[in-house]
Amino acid sequence: MLKVNNLQVYYGAIHAIKDISFQVNEGEIVSLIGANGAGKTTTLHAVSGLLKPTSGEVSFLSSKIDNLSADKIVKKGIAHVPEGRRVFAKLSVQENLELGAFLVKDKNFIKNEYERVLTLFPRLKERLKQMAGTLSGGEQQMLAIGRALMINPKMLLMDEPSMGLAPILVKEIFEIIKECNKQGMTILLVEQNAKMALNISHRAYVLETGKIVMSDDAKNLLGNEEVKKAYLGG
Prior knowledge:
The protein is α/β, with parallel strands linked by helices. It has a single domain (2-231), classed as P-loop containing nucleotide triphosphate hydrolases (Rossmann fold). The protein is built from 10 helices and 10 strands. It has helices spanning 40-48, 70-76, 93-100, 107-120, 122-125, 137-149, 167-182, 194-200, 218-222, 225-231, and strands at 2-11, 14-24, 29-33, 55-60, 63-64, 78-81, 155-159, 186-190, 203-208, 211-217. Helix 3 (93-100) runs parallel beside helix 6 (137-149). It is globular, with a radius of gyration of 17 Å.
C-alpha cells in the first residue's frame, strides 16, 4: 500500500534520513520505533508531504506521491495525526472535526463520518461546544485522531499518540488505534513507548540516527534481546 524507497532527507547540512526503505501493507499496523532524534517524525513528514525528500521515492497505492503537496496527499487518502496533537485551541470540538473534512464536498459523507467519530469517541460527543484548548491532554489526542478520521482515510499516520498522557489514557488511546485497525484502517505509527507500540503492531522498523537498523514481526522484536535492552527497559 505504502512503499518508501531509498529516502534521503537533509535539514541544511544535517543528514536526517539516510537511504531508508520500508513498506506498509493494507490492513497492517506498522510501527517505527527508536530514540529521540532517530528520524521517526521526519519520515512521517516526508510521507505526508509536510517535508520534501532530498531524494528517493514514496508511493501510495502504486502512485508516486513524493512530488505532491500535503493537501493532495490527503486527497489520496493519507491523514496525519501530528506530534503534540495540534488541535485548533480557540475553536470548538465540533469546529475542529468539521475542519478535518474541509476537502470533502459530499455532505452525506461528512455526516456519516461525523457520527462514526462520535461513536468511537463518546467523550467528544459530550464536549462538542467546548473550546478544544480547554480539553485535557487525552481528550485533545482523541480530537486529533477524530479530526484525521473525518475523511475516512485509507491510511493513518500517527506521531507519538501517547506523548504526555497518563498511563490509563495511554491504554485507552491504544485501544482506539486497535479499533480503527479492526475497522479496516491501515496505520503507520511512530511511538516512543516501544512496548505499547509493538504490542499492537503487526510489524516494526527500528530507526537509529536516520537509518533502519532492524525490522521484523512485532512479536519477534518484543522478544529480541537488543531491542529489549535499548527500548523496552531491559
